[in-house]
Write a structure and sequence with these properties.
2 domains, about 5% helix, Immunoglobulin-like, 8-stranded mixed beta sheet, mainly beta
């Protein structure tokens, strides 16, 4: 995966990019026996887009659309399982299916999550732009996100030297894509000090890129967001498989989602729940590697 991160502060001498394939704890459902259609809103009644919705430790789930609407199929044997709603910048809640269906107009409200921001000293200095991440010259390869279903994410570990920096752009190279439009979510994640795996979100707002390119570099301008980071972090890219995209794939009007240039250096799979906790760590099997 060619992820380009440009910064406006400091010089970068060493990088250790590692690519992790983050398997979704929630995916598309089959053998449906119960269906829930609803909407996710905030405390003001405004819709919350692209909320992760599903049953923990399963592949049952969906993502709300741009208007907060969602359609969730619960297969046989899971009709009574609790459903978790998770969105960046909001508190995660878990409800029983009957509780969701008993809500007025089937509207689920997620409260805002309050974060205490650390004090940051800013000293004037000359600005310098650098590109971080995996550059040309790595072994060629590609990862089709569709091969692990929408909602999967890939994360690149970047270890800069000491000091803070401002993020102004994030980019990803698309090798091929058959959808007329797709959505990618960029996330900056901390590093677990014990496992070294992706941890909590460092930026508490959605960073969504909509693109329709079939090949080339897709970029998201972050210069107006005043994102300042410090120390090692993961840059993750998640394909948001919204209802429209899922319908196209079901009807075979498109056979592939975006295929991102990449190289899995350590062949590891990390599976996490919607709150970011690691629920599975293992190496990819030979069969799984052949599918990527």
């Amino acid at each position: 995966m060619v992820l380009i991160l440009e910064t406006a502060d400091g010089m970068w001498n060493t990088l250790r990019p590692f690519l992790f394939l983050v398997m979704p704890a929630m995916g598309q459902a089959h053998a449906q026996t119960a269906t829930i259609d609803g909407r996710v809103i905030d405390h003001t009644g405004a819709p919350i887009p692209f909320v992760n919705i599903g049953v923990r430790s399963t592949r049952i789930g969906c993502v709300s659309d741009e208007h907060g609407r969602f359609h969730l199929d619960l297969p046989k044997g899971h009709s009574g399982d609790s459903i978790t709603f998770s969105a960046i910048g909001h508190k995660t809640i878990t409800l029983a299916p009957t509780d969701v269906m008993n809500l007025a107009q089937m509207q689920v409200t997620l409260p805002r999550k309050v974060y205490e921001l650390p004090m940051l000293e800013v000293h004037p200095q000359a600005m310098r732009s650098e590109t971080l991440g995996t550059h040309k010259g790595i072994a060629p390869g590609g990862t089709s996100i569709q091969s692990v279903q929408g909602g999967a994410a890939m994360a690149l570990l970047i270890e800069p030297p000491e000091g803070s920096f401002e993020v102004i752009k994030a980019s990803v190279t698309i090798l091929e894509n058959e959808l007329d439009t797709f959505l990618l979510r960029f996330r900056f994640l901390g590093v677990d000090p014990v496992t070294g795996y992706p941890a909590e979100d460092l930026v508490h707002e959605d960073m969504i890129l909509r693109s329709g390119i079939d090949k080339g570099v897709a970029s998201l301008d972050l210069s107006a967001r005043d994102i300042r980071l410090r120390g090692p972090f993961y840059l993750a890219v998640e394909w948001i498989n919204d209802e429209r995209t899922a319908e196209l794939l079901r009807k075979r009007e498109a056979t592939k989602g975006p295929r991102i240039q990449g190289e899995i250096r350590n062949n590891k799979v990390v599976r996490r729940d919607e709150e970011g906790r690691v629920i599975e760590k293992r190496r990819l099997t030979d069969a799984e590697l052949e599918q990527l």
